[in-house]
Specification:
The complex is a heterodimer of chains A (about 100) and B (about 375). Chain A is mostly beta strands. Helices cover about 0% and strands about 50% of the residues of chain A. Chain B is mostly helical. The chains are: A mainly beta (about 100), B mainly alpha (about 375). The complex binds FE2/S2 (inorganic) cluster.
Chain lengths: ~100, ~375
């Protein structure tokens, strides 16, 4: 699987996320409060809403449409109305660049 | 548009899907990310304060009502208790269902369960119907929470100020849920993984009502029912009054909350009971913003919204004649002008949406 240079570490505030589109797919990249980076599919599994307008609280991302929540580290669905887990992607940081291993 | 069919299995439901309405993207006012993050921030303090005031007042009013019972002097205390039980529970159910009232999840859940019981809604079903209400607000045949169906049945609207039709609909549904889980219609929006929960919640509610009725029979008095059950009727008027204003008389089948929702300035007591849901356009546009931040959100985006109604009375003066007109012409709706600072309505999209027509044609 290729590692793709997605963004700079400065592009995402701590405890926040951005949308990243690549090769026809949309992703969400997160900067956790303890400084780590994570990536998931960009659309909520409930109704295909972009998660980038949602709220990061600790290790959770809350969807902007119906307040469903996922643990963005594992993709686990944590709060109704989401029931289906979110797909996650490996992330590595080299220097000030964030790389995502896209499938 | 012909006669509206509000059934979740009817032709309007199918048309909403086929026309692309259900897949269309809703209009949002642009708000800088930093500002929005600040508005979305969660906090326990305001909701803990309000919950202590709410439950403390309920205990106080019910206590005085019981002490003065059966004297008529108890009546004002029952009326106050009833509004908190039968109306404030609606907004607590709503805000805790969104999970935005408290920062701490278990606090949202506890208040949500209590409020669902008081407002006579199955806690496991209505979470899902409300999700649909947000995705497909006032789409005919898709939104299960349309308070004013067209043509409006005014007598029914008035009866519901006393919760009569709600309670009549609730009792058989509760028993059915307790015996066999969700109804076929509920199964269209409640995922299968939740069906057991629906049944479990219904069973708990039935048990509490059965115990209350048994106590009333044993005491030979309706007093226990004045505390549990009946306040859903004698205290419903406030949530019905504010609930009708949310979308009543406005457009249906549109994808811009400025066209189908109403923001109304209200007095502080009503805002406490209603937990700031008078900022209803704001709430629908940004459901992640907690109730206590809605006045701030209103200030941020009001230049892009129709001017709010100045009071409950003024909002009724706008809505009630529109509802009466819809009795004869169900395609009529009130279309509010936007200020010059606002982005215009997307006429191009709405032109082909069923039921949406320029105001001149609706006259
Ligand atoms: S679309 Fe994400 S919770 Fe519904």
């Amino acid at each position: 699987m290729p590692w793709i240079d997605a963004c700079s570490t400065d592009d995402i505030d701590e405890e926040d996320l951005i949308r990243w589109d690549h090769a026809g797919q949309t992703f969400a990249i997160y900067h956790s409060p303890d400084g780590a980076f994570f990536a998931t599919a960009g659309l909520c599994t409930h109704e295909n809403v972009h998660l980038c307008d949602g709220l990061v609280m600790g290790n959770l991302i809350e969807c902007p449409k119906h307040n469903g929540q996922f643990d963005y580290r594992t993709g686990e669905a944590m709060r109704a109305p989401v029931c289906v887990n979110l797909r996650t992607f490996p992330v590595k940081v080299e220097g000030d660049r964030v790389f995502v291993e896209v499938a | 548009m012909g006669k509206r069919d509000y059934s979740l299995f009817g032709p309007d439901a199918k048309r909403a899907v086929d026309s692309g309405l259900t897949a269309a993207e809703w209009y949002h006012t642009e708000v800088p990310r930093k500002v929005m993050k600040d508005l979305m921030a969660r906090s326990d303090a305001p909701a803990i304060r309000d919950t202590i005031i709410l439950y403390g007042s309920m205990i106080l009013f019910a206590g005085i009502g019981i002490a003065l019972w059966p004297s008529l002097w108890s009546a004002p205390f029952w009326l106050a208790y009833g509004v908190l039980y039968g109306s404030a529970s609606d907004s607590r159910w709503h805000e805790c269902g969104h999970g935005t009232a408290f920062k701490t999840p278990w606090m949202n859940n506890v208040v949500y369960q209590i409020a669902s019981f008081m407002i006579m809604r199955n806690a496991a079903t209505w979470r899902w119907s409300h999700a649909r209400h947000h995705s497909e607000t006032y789409f005919v045949g898709r939104d299960p929470e349309i308070a004013v169906m067209r043509p409006p049945e005014v007598a029914k609207l008035i009866l519901n100020f006393f919760g009569i039709l709600d309670v009549i609909a609730f009792v058989p549904r509760l028993l059915r849920n307790a015996i066999s889980g969700p109804t076929p219609e509920e199964r269209t929006y409640v995922p299968q993984s939740e069906w057991d929960k629906v049944q479990h919640v219904a069973f708990v509610h039935v048990s509490i009502y059965a115990a209350t009725i048994a106590l009333a029979v044993w005491l030979g008095s309706i007093l226990p029912l004045m505390v549990i059950g009946l306040p859903r009727m004698y205290g419903a008027w406030h949530h019905v009054m504010t609930g009708l204003l949310q979308h009543g008389g406005l457009a249906d089948n549109v994808i811009d909350h400025r066209l189908n929702s109403r923001t109304v300035y209200m007095n502080p007591v009503s805002r406490f009971i209603y937990w700031n849901m008078n900022y209803h356009v704001e709430h629908h546009m940004f459901p992640m913003v907690p109730y206590h931040a809605l006045p701030r959100l209103h200030e941020v985006i009001k230049a892009d919204l129709p001017p709010p109604n100045r009071s409950i009375a003024e909002a009724f003066r706008e809505m009630w004649p529109a509802i009466k007109r819809q009795v004869m012409n169900e395609d009529y709706f009130v279309r509010r002008d936007l200020p010059p600072t606002a982005k215009p309505y997307r006429e191009d999209f709405h032109r082909y949406v069923p039921g949406m027509m320029p105001p001149a044609a609706a006259e």
